[in-house]
Amino acid sequence: MTEQTNELTMIQSSRKRRAAAFIIDYIVLTFLAVSTIFIIIGPNFIDNNDFGQMINTMMMVLIPIFIIYFCKDLINGISLGRWIMGIMVRDENDTSEIPSKAKLIIRNLFLIIWPVELLVLAFNNNKKRLGDNIAKTIVLKNPNKAKKSYRIIALVVICLIFFGFTSLFTGTALKTSEAYKTAILSIETNNDIINETGGIKGYGTFPKGNINVTNDFGQANFEIKVIGNSKDMAVSVWLQKEQNGIWTVTALR
Q1: 9-40, pLDDT tens digit by residue?
Q2: Are residues 59 and 67 in contact, defined by beta-carbon separation less than 8 angstroms?
Q3: SS3 per residue for 30-70
Q4: Residue range 69-86, pLDDT digits in tens
Q5: Would you state the pLDDT for residue 160?
Q6: What is the DSSP string of 192-246?
Q7: pLDDT at res. 7
Q8: 189 — phi, psi (to 5°)?
């Protein structure tokens, strides 16, 4: 019995690998959810005052996303994150067997309380979280894992897609907002900026800044790169939205 336990301990996945696999899976599912919501709602969601419709859309997307998340290990007990990290889920009583689909789903249901699960995993002597204890599963190193170079390439591609889309999503949302359009109009009618740049040719690809709207009141600020005929310059614009729904520039520098 002791010999079998030692063998399991030797091939059991480390906590770091499990945490990394969780983060990768979380990033992938978050990307799927955000990109789907973005496609359905469109880039003008910042100016959308129909919060009921937005919530319904989010629920319509998040429910199937959660179902996918709970079922992420159904193919050979390996999710995308586990494949990259070279680990797999197996039956606690027979480590050569893949747990039943019901067990794999049950263990993932507990990820709803993922902060608790990570704490349990961190301090559990058997390197198991609540889901593992309930479903009687164990996470082991995969002896048949893909080549390290393939897994690294997959990880790099996922990161590039995620962060690239995040930048595109944020930039597009800002540029299509009424606040940004008001800021651009203010820049284009400012004689000091026109004289200093020698005339405006265009603007940077994506502005920096943020927009906060609560109950029809809002505040926004942007840092916009102005491309001029003779000189480029960065312009900071602060705006405020009153209850009438109109954005006004409060400061421009």
Answers
A1: 458 999 999 999 999 999 999 888 888 877 77
A2: no
A3: HHHHHHHHHHHHCHHHHHCCCHHHHHHHHHHHHHHHHHHHH
A4: 999 999 999 999 999 999
A5: 93
A6: HHHHHHTSEEEE-SS-EEEEEEETTEEEEEEEEEEEESS--EEEEEEEEE-TTS-
A7: 45
A8: -110, 10
- Tracing tokens 């007990």 back to the chain, one arrives at 77
| Distances 61 to 4, 73, 150, 161 between C-alpha atoms, Å | 45, 20, 31, 20
Q: In the chain, where are the structural domains located?
A: 2-172, 177-252
| Contacts of range 161-170, beta carbons closer than 8 Å, 24 or more positions apart | 161/31, 162/27, 162/28, 162/30, 162/31, 165/31, 165/34, 165/35, 166/34, 167/206, 169/34, 169/35, 169/38, 170/206
Burial class (CB in 10 A: 0-12, 13-18, 19+), 156: exposed
With a cut of 50, say whether residue 5 has pLDDT above it.
no
Residue type present at position 239: L
Of 111, 39, 36, which Cα lies nearest the Cα of 72? 111
Tell me the pLDDT tens digit for each residue of 164-195.
Answer: 888 888 888 888 888 999 999 999 999 999 99
